[in-house]
Design brief:
Elements lengths: L7 E5 L4 H12 L3 E6 L2 H11 L3 E5 L5 H15 L4 E4 L14 H29 L2 E6 L12 H21 L4 E8 L13 H5 L9 H12 L10 E4 L7
Parallel strand pairs: 1-2, 1-4, 2-3, 4-5, 5-6, 6-7
């Protein structure tokens, strides 16, 4: 049996990159998965690849009605919700005084409001199931000051705060909430390879693989982590040590 056998998960931003890798790993570990993304064509293709254990719903995570549709799909197709992976996010970098207000508002709406909205929408179903696990994707940029990352970093600091308070509020309902903080990760739109100088700043001298990040997400969602909640779980090769 897989680590997630019999569980149903919602994974946002799952059409490509890290989210798609999480989806593949969750299905491989026995979970049913509702994949969401704005990229409908690639999302549908991934759901077809994954078979009967997967459904795709086109979703803007900042839309309440879209969240209602996602929850309805999970409940009708698989009976309820056990796991939420808040993976969807926007990313841009620039000097703090050059950010465009509309882009700032949109990024915060997706990264922060969208994560909170997802939590609020899945909790009733999780309570009916007797508990659940929520994994919020934050970032190393949400734990230290990184040049040109003021807006993105601020959103991920907020996700960490949301995680900790949600863990406290939802703990009595047996719902665990954890944050994953990746550093550089291969094969994502946020990392273009890195220079030798940048790699020297990482004690392990390389970026993470997608599978290494998914390993951590699967673990936190599984019964192997039933006494872990409210945590910041760094996966950065040691980059945040200094």
């Amino acid at each position: 049996m897989g680590k997630l056998s019999g569980k149903t998960a919602i994974i946002t931003g799952a059409a490509q990159g890290m989210g798609a890798n999480h989806a593949r790993r969750f299905v491989a570990e026995g979970a049913n998965v509702v994949l969401t993304d704005l990229q409908e064509e690639t999302g549908v293709a991934l759901a077809q690849e994954l078979g009967e254990s997967a459904r795709f719903v086109r979703q803007d995570v900042s839309s309440e009605s879209d969240w209602d549709a996602v929850v309805k799909t999970a409940e009708e197709a698989f009976g309820g919700i056990d796991i939420l992976v808040n993976n969807a996010g926007m990313y841009f970098i620039c000097p703090v005084d050059e950010a465009e207000p509309d882009k700032v508002r949109k990024l915060l709406e997706v990264n922060v409001f969208g994560s909170w909205l997802g939590i609020s929408k899945v909790v009733p179903s999780m309570k009916q199931r007797g508990g659940g696990a929520i994994v919020n994707l934050a970032s190393l940029a949400g734990a230290r000051g990184i040049p040109w990352h003021a807006i993105y970093g601020a959103s991920k600091w907020a996700v960490r705060g949301l995680t900790k308070t949600a863990a406290y509020d939802l703990g009595p309902a047996n719902i665990r909430v954890n944050a994953v903080l990746p550093g550089a990760v291969q094969d994502t739109g946020m990392f273009s390879g890195g220079t030798p100088e940048q790699m020297q700043q990482i004690p392990l001298q390389r970026p993470a693989t997608l599978d290494e990040v998914s390993d951590l997400v699967v673990f936190l969602a599984s019964s192997e982590a039933t006494y872990i909640t409210g945590g910041d779980h760094f996966i950065d090769g040691g980059r945040g040590l200094w």
